[in-house]
Design goal:
By secondary structure, the protein is mostly helical.
Length: 77
Amino acid sequence: MFMETILQSIFNNPVVLMLFLTWSIVWKGFGMWRAAQIKSKPWFIALLVVNTAGILDILYIFIFSKKGKPTSQSKPE
């Protein structure tokens, strides 16, 4: 009950709400852009549908997208 009251007072503040929305949209944009760059349709769809306040997006950018990224090797001439 006490935590619910605190959260309600925080998110009823328009400045805090705008900061939260901006944070979430920026990370979602970076995450979806990264998924599109490495052609990962499942991650792109997951990032589009699931809203985790940027947490899933941050994890994808810094942890999961590194594993699936193809390495660039120079071609012999």
